Fold:
Amino acid sequence: MVMKGKVTCPKCSFVFIVESEEEKDKSVECPKCGHKFIARIGKTKNKDVRWIEYGGTRKAILPIPENLSNRPFVAGILLALVSILGVATVAMFYIYPDVEVLTPYSLVLGGNETYLTIIILVFSILSAVGSYNSIRKKSLTIALAGSVFGVLSFGFLIIGPILSLVSLILLIMSKDDFEKSLHGKEF
Structure:
C-alpha cells in the first residue's frame, strides 16, 4: 500500500509530499533547496510527517472545546421555564375564564382573551426555540431573540419577564461561549 506524507525541510522549511511503501527511514531531497536529509516515516514524536492512506475515510477537524461557562445552559433552562410559564398562563385563561388579568396586551386588545392567548402562546413557543439554541449553543442570535420574546410573553405576569431578562443578561455575557463551541463562530 502506498502512503503519502508531508515532510518539512529542516534547512528551508519547505513542506513537500513524500511517498513510501514501508514505514522506515527514507533519504529524501528537498525540491526547493536541494538539501538531502532522512525523513522518519511512521510514528514519530515530532509531528513533521503526517500520513494519508489512499481510499481511507477522512475525518473532519473540529475545534477543541475550551473551558466554557455554564451561562448559556442556565439561560436556556430559564427560557424553558419562561416558555412553560407562558403556556400555563394560557391554560389559566381557559380554566378560570372569569378572572380578569391585567397585561399590557389586555389594555391594547380591550380584554379579548382569544388574541391575548394566541400572542402569549406564540411568544412562549419562540422562547422555547431560544431555549433550545441556548442550551445547544447553536445560535446566539436566535437565543437572544427567544429571550426577548420571553420578556414579551408575560408568563404569570411578572415572573416570566424577570426570568427572561436574567437569561438575556446571561446570554449577552456568554457571547464567547457560543463562538468557541463545537458549532463555531456565527457570521
Remarks:
- The helical segments are 71-95, 104-109, 113-136, 140-153, 159-173, 175-179.
- The first strand starts at residue 3 and ends at 8.
